[in-house]
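Handout, page 2. Input:
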Amino acid sequence: MGYESILVHLDTTKAAMRRLDLAVRLAVDNECRLIGLFAGFVPAPGWFYIVQGAAELVAEETERRHRLRDQVRRRFEEAVGGLPIEAEWRTVEGEPVTMTLREAREAGLIVAGQYDPGDIEGFVAHQFLESLILESGRPVLVVPFAGDFPTVGTRVLIAWNGSREATRALHDAAALLAGSQATLLSAQTAAEEMRADATPSSHAARALMRHGVAVNVEHGPGGSDLTIGELLLSRAADFNADLIVMGAYGHGRMRELVVGGVTHTLLSSMTVPVLMSH
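Output:
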């Protein structure tokens, strides 16, 4: 069973257009609805009272961003024009994290972008991507800011530690995995090695095979979060993977989201799309 809808986050960066191309392909393959959601940076209201002339500067910047937003909308409409799928454009108004989460929870799959520290246009809000992953309740396909990805889900590396998060990711990715070749990499961090409820990799492999996946199970060494994160990236390169599937780990602390070490490593250093579920 495929996704019933896909929501792609769009902004004014070049990477957003590559995300759009990928999301369009996935929507056509799944014969599902595509939602283009534009969410961009919103200046903090406090600026009006701190910086002299801030109101004029903010008005000029807002007008510029609205022009760019309209250009993105035209690109979206051109990309979906004539396709045999339903498509909808939306723009969030107000605080971008809160309003994006409100819209995103409707989707079967969210397509979002890795943060590019070298492109200021890509900044939406503090911990925007982390919020989508940890608070939306939906699987998030994170697309690297660099590179083109003509295929997604033909050769897949699946991170497995028997946890709830890993299980959720495996099943959330099922629509992308049918007929693929997959390596199921079973590896646990030191803190997880003693968990009695960890589901064996053989169970995960059977679930994958029922979706027509040709799966090979590998067992990696245990280690720190950083070690496991680097192992996943290394094995993905060795396997020539076009997708990594993994559970995302994190929690909120004093209004800050704290992502797990493996999750942070992948978000920082990914070279292929990564599907994350929390």
